[in-house]
Structures are given as C-alpha cells and as structure tokens.
C-alpha cells in the first residue's frame, strides 16, 4: 500500500509505504553492542529461534567467553509465570557466579508470547536491588514486533539514560555506539577544537556513566536513536542539529555543528579539520572513479540510508534511484535530507513486493539491502551490498571515509572481475 506525502519544497520527495517488510529484529544489535560495553552482558530472554539468530549473526566472531547468551523460556501458561521469574533469577545467579567480571547485565526481551507476558522491567529492578552495587541490571526489548535491528541499539541506550547521574555543568555528549578507534579520533578532534568535557554514550565500561543535565548538549553519531534522544531530552539535554559524520563532508559539518554550539570560531574548525579532510579526500579519489554515475537503490534496513545516500551522491557522484528507510525521523535527519539532490525519491516504511518490482524495473548498478534480499537479487544479476556490514565496520569520521566508500566499490569491482 503506498501513499504519496507532500514533498518538501525543493527537496527530496518523501512517501510512505506500508506492507510486508524484511528486516532483522533488534536482538541483532547485541552483536556490536557487546563488543562496545566491555563489562556488560546481554541475556536474551527468548526462544530457540532467538538463540539461533544470535548465534548465527555472531557466528563470525565466536569468543571463548562471549558476552551474550539466551535464557530459553519454553511455552508456559500464566500459572507458570512465577516459576519463570524464579528460573530467570536462577539463570542470572548462575551466570554471575561463573562470570564475576560482569558489571552491567541487560535482560533483553523478545517476541515469543511467553516472554511478552514476563515483566522484565520488574525482574531487572528486583535483581538490581539484590545485586547492587556490584552489578546493575537493566532491561529493554529487542523483539521483532517492536524493533528493527538498529532500533535494538536505540532501546539499549535509552535504557541506560535514566541510570546516568545528574550534573549542571556544560558538557558535550556524543550518542551512539562507535568503534573505539572512531571514538578516540572524535575525542581528539573535539578536544583540539576546545570543546569539553566530551563524553560518549554508551561508555566502554559500565562505570563510565556520563552525567546529564540542562547544560548537556548532545550530538547524535547514529541516525536511529529516537528513544534515546527523547530520554536525554527528558533529562534536560539539548540536541545539536547536524548531518551524520559519514564521509569527509558529513564529518566536517558534524564537527562544525558542535563547534558552533560551543562558540568555537570557524577559522579554528578549518585549521583543526584540515589534515583529516585532506587525508579523506585522498582516500576517496580512487573510489569516486568507480562510483561516479553509478545508479544506486537503497532498500530500507539500517536507518543509515539517508546519510549514506547523501554521501554517495555528493561525495561519490552516484545517482540515487530510491532511498528507502524503515523509519524517517524528519527532525534528526533534516540536515541530511536538505543535502540530498532535489526530487530524490525517499521511501519511509516498506511494501516489499512493490519495492522489489521498482528495483527490478530500474536495474540499478548497485543495490544496498538486507541479507535476505541480497541472494535473490544477486541471482537476478544485480550487484548488492549488505547493509548490516555498515554497522559492523567502523565507517564514521575522516580516517574511515575511504573504508566507507570501499564497502560500496568492492562489490562493483568483484562484478567487474567476474565479467572480465
Ligand atoms: Fe525471532 Fe522475535 Fe526472537 Fe527476533 S526476537 S529472533 S524476531 S522470535
């Protein structure tokens, strides 16, 4: 089902679609979140399906001591719920005995009906009271009914916000899970700009709890953090509007927005960012030759699609056929949307068959999509890029701009080799 919404004047044409969709659930985000918060543990309360999903999504990175597991809750009636809570308590205590290094435990809800009946928020509060101060227990939902795979990160970070201490002092909070190497680069650049103190959400360790208050300005590093932003604003924090830090241009505008909010002179921004901009420009040159003029179709999957489309079109010279996104936060994405070429077709939501028809008719040079669509489309001789890789790979900032472009040029190069 499709409905055309009024276009933004001289901007992209945004329309809504509703129907069947093909997106992973929020449990998937555990795969990158458990690497980020080093003394946290993610206990999925779910079914065997959830356990399989997590194991296969994380299959590429099996650790001797993984920091996630699934407590399998079998079919049970309401009378069995008290037992389920006791069972959960037992699983948690056994886990903590075996893993005394855990400081933060997330109980992650899923969609089987027997799990929905469990009040994980209450279970987390009860366990937290018992286990404090050694271990904090929080809960959030990664259910496929409520979340797509990046919304799992949003739900996790939103669960952290009420637990942050209060502070009246001015500070900058960078929000969104970033690879440590990217976080270090941003911390250096922001410090060189004279902005501080700079803190990150999530922290690398459970004890790193950034204080928040009315003088906290926050800068989103990921475009899918609607609930986290709302929770921060309830604590008085104020968002700094900016495009997302993908590509050289996105990174410069993101840093410049923070600099403006903290009264840093534009000349200082130019001086501090110049070496990074130059390195990114060099790294992007070869990729631009491969991507310029290529027609790209982005299926809705990661919610990174709008800033990616901006990067592909403005920095790589690609032509955008359609930019799909599962949800479009018009305020958080306003700066990126404004930089898309006039008339870009942006689709919010999904009607899978209709979108597949449009993609097949357009025969794009490159299709960015979820794992489930990639194989059939490759079978139809279309070149695809898995959008989930964009979450597993460090892509933000100047030093990663070349790697970001490389994610798109690699499938094109592989196809060219095969054809040769
Ligand atoms: Fe499947 Fe729901 Fe479990 Fe996700 S949370 S794996 S969608 S059952």
From TrEMBL:
Chemical reaction(s) catalysed: chlorophyllide a + oxidized 2[4Fe-4S]-[ferredoxin] + 2 ADP + 2 phosphate = protochlorophyllide a + reduced 2[4Fe-4S]-[ferredoxin] + 2 ATP + 2 H2O
Annotated cofactor note: Binds 1 [4Fe-4S] cluster per heterodimer. The cluster is bound at the heterodimer interface by residues from both subunits.
Keyword Iron among record annotations: yes
Residues that coordinate or bind [4Fe-4S] cluster: 25, 50, 111
Record-annotated membrane-spanning stretches: none
Domain of life: Bacteria
Domain Nitrogenase/oxidoreductase component: 31-405
Pfam families: Oxidored_nitro (PF00148)
Enzyme class per UniProt: oxidoreductase
Enzyme Commission number(s): 1.3.7.7
InterPro entries xrefs: LIPOR_BchN/ChlN, Nase/OxRdtase_comp1, Protochl_reductN
Pathway(s) annotated for this protein in UniProt: Porphyrin-containing compound metabolism; bacteriochlorophyll biosynthesis (light-independent)
Co-factor(s): [4Fe-4S] cluster
Database matches in Gene3D superfamilies: Nitrogenase molybdenum iron protein domain
GO molecular function: 4 iron, 4 sulfur cluster binding; ATP binding; metal ion binding; oxidoreductase activity, acting on iron-sulfur proteins as donors; oxidoreductase activity, acting on the CH-CH group of donors, iron-sulfur protein as acceptor
GO biological process: light-independent bacteriochlorophyll biosynthetic process; photosynthesis, dark reaction
Entry keyword Nucleotide-binding: yes
Record function comment: Component of the dark-operative protochlorophyllide reductase (DPOR) that uses Mg-ATP and reduced ferredoxin to reduce ring D of protochlorophyllide (Pchlide) to form chlorophyllide a (Chlide). This reaction is light-independent. The NB-protein (BchN-BchB) is the catalytic component of the complex.
Assembly notes: Protochlorophyllide reductase is composed of three subunits; BchL, BchN and BchB. Forms a heterotetramer of two BchB and two BchN subunits.
Family annotation (NCBIfam families): DPOR_bchN, PRK02842.1
Protein family: Belongs to the BchN/ChlN family.
Protein's name according to its UniProt entry: Light-independent protochlorophyllide reductase subunit N
Organism the protein comes from: Methylobacterium variabile
